[in-house]
Design brief:
The complex is a heterodimer of chains A (476) and B (456). Chain A is mainly alpha-helical and 476 residues long. Chain A is built from 22 helices and 3 strands. In chain A, strands 2-3 form a two-stranded antiparallel sheet. In chain A, a hairpin with a 2-residue loop joins strand 2 and strand 3. Chain A starts with a helix and ends with a helix. With 456 residues, chain B is an alpha/beta fold. Chain B folds into 3 domains: 119 residues, 3-Layer(aba) Sandwich (Rossmann fold); 116 residues, NAD(P)-binding Rossmann-like Domain (Rossmann fold, 3-Layer(aba) Sandwich), CATH 3.40.50; 104 residues, Regulator of K+ conductance, C-terminal domain (Alpha-Beta Plaits). In chain B, helix 1 packs across helix 14, helix 6 packs across helix 9 and helix 6 crosses helix 14. Chain B is globular and about 65 Å long. Classes of the chains: A mainly alpha (476), B alpha/beta (456). At the A-B interface, strand 1 of A face helix 10 and strand 14 of B. Strand 1 of chain A pairs antiparallel with strand 14 of chain B, so a sheet runs across the interface.
Amino acid sequence: MNYKLMLRMLGRILQLEALLLLLPTLVALLYQESPRPFLLTLVPILIVGTLLSRLRAKADFFSREGFAVVGMIWVALCVTGAFPFWLSGEFATFWDCLFEITSGFTTSGATILADIERLPRGILFWRSFSSWIGGMGILLFTLAFLPKVGGRNQILVQAEMPGPLATKLVPKTVQSSQILYGLYIALTAVEILALSIAGMPFYDAVVSTFACVCTGGFCVLNASFAAYNTACQIIAIVFMILGSLNFALFFLILTGRVRQALKSDELRFFLLAAGVGSVLVFANILPLYDSIGEALMDAVFQVASILSTSGFSTTDYNLWPPFSQTILVLLMFIGGCSGSTAGSIKCGRLLLMFRCARRSILRLSHPRAVKVVKLDGKIVEEDKLNTIFAFFILFCILLVIGCVVVTLDGANLVTAFTTSLGALTNVGPGLDMVGPMGNFSFYSGPTKLFLSLMMVVGRLEIFPILLLLQPSTWRR
Amino acid sequence: MKILIVGAGKVGATLAAYLSHEDHDITIVDNNDAAIHRASDTLDVMCIKGPGAAPSVLREAGAAEADLVLATTNMDEVNMLCALTAKRLGAKYTIARIRDVAYTDDLASLRRDLNIDSVINPEYSTALEISRLLRFPAAANVDTFFRGRVEMLGILLRKEDPIVGIPLSELFSSTKKFSVLFSAAERKGDVIIPDGSFVPTAGDKLYITGSSSDLADYLRSLGRNVPAIHSVFLIGGSRISHYLAKLLLPMGVRVTLVENDEGLCRKLSEWLPEALILHGDGTDQELLASEHFTENDAFVALTGRDEDNLISALYAKQQGIRKVVAKSNRDNYTAVVRAAGLESVVAPKLITVNRILRLVRGLQDKSGNVMTALYRITDAGTEAAEFLLTENTPNLGVPLKDLTIKKGFLIAALLHQDQVVIPDGSTALSAGDRVIVISHGQGIQTFRDIFPDKAQ
């Protein structure tokens, strides 16, 4: 392991984080709040970061270092990012701060705050801004805007980008990440504008957008999106969906390859899941509502929010019939497309696993049959399929472990299961006690630490963090 | 004609043999010593050793004065480059063999951009021929004319067929009703151009010409309405199988393909996602049985070994599969398996040779009656050729009954103002018509050949 290079890269990221912290500092100043929590975090990490980035290191850099450094950077990012919350004095314990910021960076949107509205605006801005950065990825940000990180950048992108199949848009990794961030910033700008026009206050529009395009789910109001008008909700639905599509598709569309983009198997699967989920939930909750429009709106919003792994809500679905709740839990397993800002297993992986399963059934009746598994007309290699199954089984094991650990804290089965699922899939809220109107504050400190780790594991799609936890990684 | 053949492989050497017999000046270029020796020992041709795409070699071989350059090496890219270079040097007409599956969608643009006059793909042509056989399961072979408007079926007569034993003059009214024509008959290796006294006999292979729908109706009246083919079992994952599956799958035919090479299986599965690809030995009866291959409507053997193809095909026939087709390039085996009851044997080599001979004769025909199709019906020298008539064609406007046509020739069908006409005595030829001429005994070079010399 090339520790020096890894530390140097960590230093660069800390410098960047210090830079990003300037934004909430400005917001705090603008609303005449104390910038102290930000400055007290900003200055030390800038110093540490600068010292680390001065390290001289050989440029040797391989897959192992890449995955390990991504895991390390994310852990460091969450720990340092928690300090502004801690220093603001609004949070009871450091565990709470860590949980909240991890939930932000990993775009989970789970919160320990019961009364969000009493928090200073600067702090809430940092909370949502962290999800915006985490959505597309901090390393991708670094590559896009401060490219001199180190040698083999594509390994970093692979480790941080969600989804089984990393697609390069253009031959150069740096340019690819610039395009991705460019698209991301454009989506953000359009949503801020749309929400402002739809009548949302500008601060709310900015902060909600940050939490929406990244499919995060943080809201600055206790009532989440229920507090905003229908137009704002529709805009949010659109951008949650857009955020959970593969950004490569936007690039294809912008470069005139619309037909190729629309042919994407994953896109079709995602839209099918969204459509079927909405119809089933709508039909099931219709008797609870007076008007069809309202029922449809709530059904579609909740389905989009859960499927995109955002976790916003416009209604308390804890009160819905069990069938709808089951559908929502199933949607949590699906998530968005690869190369998006959404979490969970992802449509691409599920689709490939379905195809493998169909092949296995075919092989029962034709033992000698040879059939390759394809996605978008291209062969997916067998070792990639094996990785996908490995991912799936690890996902299930972690889900079960998470559920067991959380029940130790006294939560009931539904709460514990959806807590674990919500953390691992980065949806955030679940059902029962952690439902849309509840929060995570009742969990004990160690459980919050554990859930924070689960969220990072989920965000980085399991492998980088498991690599960090494996002793052999650290042996020379 | 001065003809330059680059690449003395199976097709190149066969073509050289046919063309040198037809009195052309042949030069062969090949990079392989053994091939050059074999060619110079067995054929009356000039041989030059060297890489076929090199301008210096082509210049030495006389590409600049050549009327025709045929690029038939085993590398598609070399063939393209060879055709391109020869054209630059001044060759009048170039033909390149391009058979890689990867190029199939690009043939038109390749021809245009590389200035290749004609592209031949033997494997694709063979697949097309097999697909036609599968469309007319009752026929032993099928040839098409007039861009698919007219087909010529070869059917093997059996004892129970109603027309057996009745002279053609008595059958005339019934064939007239269906607008089909008996164009040739093959009996014990001999070919007969039938006239009124001809009596169909069991064991004859009868060639019937007509439009697809008329032929289908006529076959039905003979009690030969075989149901259409819905599933095909292919053994061997060659290029022909690939092209054939690509032709059959869009028609809604289920395709099962057995191939021995696992890597190739994966590729086939990529190219043919709708087909069922099996990895295994297609001649292994255990595998065939476990896949219930007898439940298929047709069986096509396309492995690289002719012997395997013929034996598996016979086995499939014996197991009761309705339509069995085998690929074999060896004429001597073909006769043996015909005797054992296997009707449909296709020879890719002959298909290619036919196409090129047709092109060569068309190039030669100075009167401008362009030959647009040519099929060799049997090895005994019977051919069916399609011509486009022009103003210069003799005897236009004269009813056929007033015309003397040399013995051994027959006008089987014509396409007049886009109508398919099965000719009778009152039919007259006119410019712009396309005609099919069956010839026996002598090769037909131009349309004039069918008239006695004194008539010219």
